[in-house]
Amino acid sequence: MALKGIDIFKMSPKKNCKECGVPTCMAFSMKVAQGAMKIEQCPYMGADVVAKLAEATAPPMKTIQMGDLKTGGETVMYRHEKTFVSKTLFAVTVPADNADAAIEAAKKVDYERIGEREYVEMLSVDYKGDKDAFVEAAKKAAAAEREVILNVEDADVAEAALEAIKDSKPVLNGATAENVDAFNALAVKYGVVMGIKAADLDSLYDLTKKIEDMGNKNLLLNVATSSIKEAFAEAVQIRRAALKHTDRTFGYPTIVNVGALAAGDSRLQTALAALFVERYGSIVVMESMDYAQALALFGLRQNVFTDPQKPMRVQPKNYPLNGADENAICCVTVDFALTYFVVSGELERSGVPINM
Fold it and tell me: 351: phi > 0 → left, psi -120 to 50 → alpha, else beta; which?
């Protein structure tokens, strides 16, 4: 955090009223500095002080909301330090000339594991030179009940697509040093998240700073697609700059396009997707994803983004399966979530009424 507990305490009302749930204002200030409490939980903190402290005590990485999805908000480099906040999101590429097939393939990956829905959350529509085809593909992606990424660097084409699917609030991914003014105006006009691209890390930093100076902090940062080595280095350096050095200019989630890094090689894309789930892709874009890839990647993601301080458990109680009543067989198992869902799945498939 940018401020220490003593800095927050100096601006506190010093009432020691205990209404926030802790014994003293000093204890409250320390918890705010650690991220365990929010400054707004003090009922006597002045509005001006709250406004001043809110930015200073916010996570070094900004939380970005994209429709029903969020990413960012991270506070630690390694999960064992505390926990990761926002799980890596998966996107697949939707080529404008084959949108229907790509969307239908993505929708096939949708299942439940340990009580969580696992599915391809985003569709990345690529512009390949045909404006009408791109806009039509964007419409189809928006109708698929997935969040949409518009991967385009032409402002006129971008505006046409934004206008066509403005209610879905897609990500406008394609701001560069050459088109930044036009793209920033579009992002503000339509109220959407903007993705930034640059040739190297220094240029990306300068471009991000320029856009922040324009008043836009609703951003995503694209890491390099020139090589796997550069992509990995940039993902790590962006995260380290934000979290270790509290440089808020790089305090934004990242997009990693493994489809571009390993075009045509689904196995390598799967391996790279796994790598960037661990280090540090906020959104990972693949050319496509089938069920076999999903089982490995979503299983890994679920393990990495489980809070290590809160074991995955189900509430201990009776769970009737297959229409079981009080006279049905009773099965006893532990409350560890993975065990429960594996056992309950087998019992449900048996069709036998049973209380678990």
Answer: left
